[in-house]
Description:
By secondary structure, the protein is an alpha+beta fold. Helices cover 42% and strands 34% of the residues. It has five helices and nine strands; from the N terminus they run βαααβββββββαβα. The strands form two sheets. The protein has a five-stranded antiparallel sheet. The protein has a four-stranded mixed sheet with strand order 7-6-5-9, covered by helices on one side. A hairpin with a 2-residue loop joins strand 6 (104-113) and strand 7. Helix 1 (12-36) runs antiparallel to helix 3 (52-64). The longest helix has 25 residues, at 12-36. The radius of gyration is 22 Å and the shape is elongated.
Amino acid sequence: MKNKFTVKCDAKSLNGMAVGFLIFFIVGSIWTILKYHKIPVYVSVAFFSIFIVPLILLLLWLNLVYISVNKNMIETRNMFGIKKRFDVNEITKVVWRTNYTKFGTAEKISVKAGKKKFSCETLMKNSDKMSEYILENVSSDLIIRKNKEFKDRKSTRLNSSH
């Protein structure tokens, strides 16, 4: 297996939608303020602008967060651009969560190395390589597996009514 890869969020369509919504919102807000010139319009624009800050944070998260593996060194970068590097031998705990739903299986691997933490989810690009890397390079004693099965709501309601 290759020991040099990068795990990133793979959400180009979501990123495009967020940028489009942001442009639509800014243009619409400016047009509304210029057209009506009334206090309630300013208040409503200020209220809806509360949605812009989380959207910008989402865009930052989608574009900046990554996990890079180069042989035994793992480098992570969070949404604020802060990088952390550590050796794979420094890993003290791995929690491997697997959720089984009617829509499919989702996995999340949370890794802790001292005070440094990061997570890798199934939806991230190259998450399968990260899963293999963890299994090959981390002792099985440090890996805690948690499985959760979500049942269909309709079948649960039917069974509980009898």
